[in-house]
Amino acid sequence: MVSNTAWRRFLADDRAVSAVIGFILVVGLLMLTLAVYQVQVVPQQNAQTEFEHFEDSQNELTELRNAISTAGQTDVSQFPSLHLGTTYQTRLLTINPPPPSGTLQTSEPYNITVKNGTAETNITTRFIEYEPGYNELQVGPTRYEQSVLYVDERDRDSGVSIIENQHIVDSETVRITALQNELQRTGTHRTTVEIYPQGRIDPAELPAGDELTVTIPTQLDEDDYWNETLDESGEVYRGVDRETHADGVHALNLSVDVDNLRINTVGLQTEPTEDPVTTVNRST
What we know:
By secondary structure, the chain is α+β, with helices and mostly antiparallel strands. 26% of the residues lie in helices and 33% in strands.
């Protein structure tokens, strides 16, 4: 039977208390460190990953833009690719948000119109938009239209940032590559965009004349881009009509001789299928 003295000594024994307290403090410090790491370091590292992907995507979209032009002007199919999203580094004790995916898609079709007063020809074209779904970075969509590639931050009151300038107007010559067929891709994977040319539109399919009016759909207005870019193009540039189409799509107006007009059509994933040339005779 345990004596009262031995029992009192057992109750008074605190030799393990300091070890338990020390263990609790270490665990608490570790949890605090992990919490700070999760809140501060993980978002910074993920933001860096997103920024590196954003830079890569701009280069790949530039290659896509150049491929569209090359396919149209050389009549050779092109197959550029784009990494739609990215993945974060693997973590052991901390947590990542879902990997950010991206979406590459075409707009609704709009008409490029060529007219001489008595007849007009319509050629369908589309815009391309790429929008990443980053968790940390806030960036606007990157858009391609009529050879111009730009980041559109107007919804964030930051204007547009031009990546590649237009090359449709060169002195008195106008070269247009109409983009057709619907495309939509979403994910984190790499996707290939197939670009198939139809070839140059026969000038006989266009209205005749030495002062044709060419109207091109654009999401950029004169203040955003066209006034400064085409200011020295002489009589070719005739301004922008705002909101000619729905959803903030304007009309870029050019004036050109039929002999100085080149129009090519390319299709995404298949050859162009959207009735590339439609002629309307207004009078005889």
